[in-house]
Design brief:
Number of domains: 2
Oligomer: single chain
Strand content: 15-25%
Structural class: alpha+beta
Strand order of the largest sheet: 1-2-3
């Protein structure tokens, strides 16, 4: 790795440790020429599937577009940026875990609604109203009634899975 200070090519790793819940490797490096120390992060670069829109047209996955949609639903709601980041990571993990070249936007939309349901019910209904194209007040009422019958995020987390998900990659 090239030194960012003197541009020397010979640097050595002083220390390595896992970061970001084991998804990154943090390395402290030292330059052999100028003795400067710096940190690098290594993360697997995984390709994301194409998202197939309602029109049938595939488009590249866009994390910024996904974040913007989630943040619009969460506008002026008591949800921290860290919670949003965690929800985005969950969604991207699901997309990569699908092991498909293309994922239907409807499937992604359902995953987004699951994440929003856990974060904030008002944001969930906001997103659902646009995503499911609510036509009248009754559609809102029906969605709210459906939401009230579902188990809370805490209840879902406390349940044991029916199938062992096995080791994560």
């Amino acid at each position: 790795m090239q030194c960012p200070f003197c541009k020397a090519v010979d640097t050595r790793v002083v220390d390595s440790r896992l970061a970001e819940d084991g998804t990154q490797v943090r390395r402290r490096r030292s330059c052999e020429e100028c003795s400067a120390r710096f940190t690098t992060f290594e993360k697997a670069q995984l390709s994301m599937p194409l998202i197939v829109k309602r029109s049938g047209e595939p488009e590249p996955f866009n994390e910024d577009k996904l974040r913007q949609g989630i943040e619009s639903a969460l506008y002026k709601r008591p949800v921290t940026p860290e919670q949003v980041d965690h929800a985005l990571e969950n969604l991207m993990r699901k997309l990569r875990g699908a092991n498909e070249r293309e994922v239907d936007s409807g499937r992604l939309g359902e995953w987004v609604m699951e994440e929003l349901r856990d974060l904030d019910h008002v944001a969930y209904v906001r997103f659902a109203s646009i995503y499911r194209k609510f036509e009248d007040v009754n559609a809102f009422r029906e969605e709210i009634e459906r939401l009230q019958t579902l188990p809370s995020a805490e209840q879902r987390r406390s349940q044991l899975p029916l199938i062992d998900p096995g080791p994560t990659r």
